[in-house]
Amino acid sequence: xxxxxxxxxxxxxxxxxxxxxxxxxxxxxxxxxxxxxxxxxxxxxxxxxxxxxxxxxxxxxxxxxxxxxxxxxxxxxxxxxxxxxxxxxxxxxxxxxxxxxxxxxxxxxxxxxxxxxxxxxxxxxxxxxxxxxxxxxxxxxxxxxxxxxxxxxxxxxxxxxxxxxxxxxxxxxxxxxxxxxxxxxxxxxxxxxxxxxxxxxxxxxxxxxxxxxxxxxxxxxxxxxxxxxxxxxxxxxxxxxxxxxxxxxxxxxxxxxxxxxxxxxxxxxxxxxxxxxxxxxxxxxxxxxxxxxxxxxxxxxxxxxxxxxxxxxxxxxxxxxxxxxxxxxxxxxxxxxxxxxxxxxxxxxxxxxxxxxxxxxxxxxxxxxxxxxxxxxxxxxxxxxxxxxxxxxxxxxxxxxxxxxxxxxxxxxxxxxxxxxxxxxxxxxxxxxxxxxxxxxxxxxxxxxxxxxxxxxxxxxxxxxxxxxxxxxxxxxxxxxx
Length: 482
Ligand code: MSP
Hints:
This protein is an alpha/beta fold and 482 residues long. It has helices at 19-36, 53-61, 66-83, 97-112, 166-173, 182-192, 221-226, 228-231, 237-240, 253-266, 298-305, 307-317, 328-355, 373-381, 385-406, 413-434, 439-448; strands spanning 3-12, 41-49, 90-93, 116-126, 131-133, 151-160, 178-179, 198-199, 201-202, 210-211, 214-219, 245-249, 274-278, 281-282, 324-325.
């Protein structure tokens, strides 16, 4: 069995998950499920990033012990992911024992190899972003990423010889491995300012993994966090590394396409095959923030509209690499038009007609040519879930058009049989193809047609005798707009 290793970033646990986090993990789940129904042995990793100053500070502000606090918030991520039907292979936490041991083992190896050395760190630190900047990077005394004030600091620290791996990093950036490719330039431009060794320890932070060779320091949270991708597959590195796809948000591409590649090179490991950097979700054109009170809680939407609808809305709204706007109105209009009027209606109409005769349908294939299966497969190979979903929904629309144009309810005999044969097979294909996006809907469709869940596999897409249909149900009801 061919292996596929797909990862998401691990999420900071300073607050409960919002719709942006949900998107990253839904996208990874959609792609993972596609490869699973293509008979790949998929290892899908997600989890939480739990160390560092910021988290310790938030915990203290809440009067909590950091460990109790991270347990609580990590639990919220886990339960949100369960509600969103995220079928991960492991939910890693950076406070997991095996991860802490792995980080120490790797630090020791790099220290013994001479790739980690002691020095003095001088620079600027942005607490909310856990990021360090040089004098030339900060803008008017503010963080270049979030615009908040930075603190000047000078302290003893250990450094990782990132600069030693510049060639490997540049090779990676030029190797066609980053989706979308226009982001490569941004990283190469940033590299022109020089590539400095990375300080990877803190004396002042207590909530972190101690350095194995100096327990007065803890490991810088990003160094600790990136290694999660290796901890999770330590049991079979040969099988799963290099990762096939690492999904991240665009703001953390530097960490993944430069620092991470440097660390991997120092460990004599190849870089990931692909990194997909997705864009940001905005609300009415604005960044989500607590102070604006516009943060969308995915769990509330799932409770109101179901996880399939939320998954569908996010993936169909924009190509992954773009920024986009999301709102409850948009979600509702997608439920009403795409899911109720198009998909739900197609399934209900055709299955109702089929149920009139309790038989196996055979006949001429009048519809499979309308399905761009090669295009869909190709989109998935390129990790373009948005485009694949639109091709599937185009097919749904074509099937509905076929029903109305042919007035199939008026057909009889062989003509009726061929129409129903074609439509039931099309619906079967739609059930299988839609499953990665909307697992519950995919399963419902397949069951109505008389198969069980294990039938959901790309090898079963071919048209053939089909029926009798078991039952029919309404997949999506319209939601009234307030
Ligand atoms: N902990 C680091 C990642 C370490 S990976 C070794 C981190 N965590 S995060 O919680 O801040 O972000 C996790 C992911 O959520 C990122 O990919 C980020 O891009 C994504 N999103 C956070 N807000 C988002 C939006 N508003 N829209 C889309 N995704 C966004 O960074």
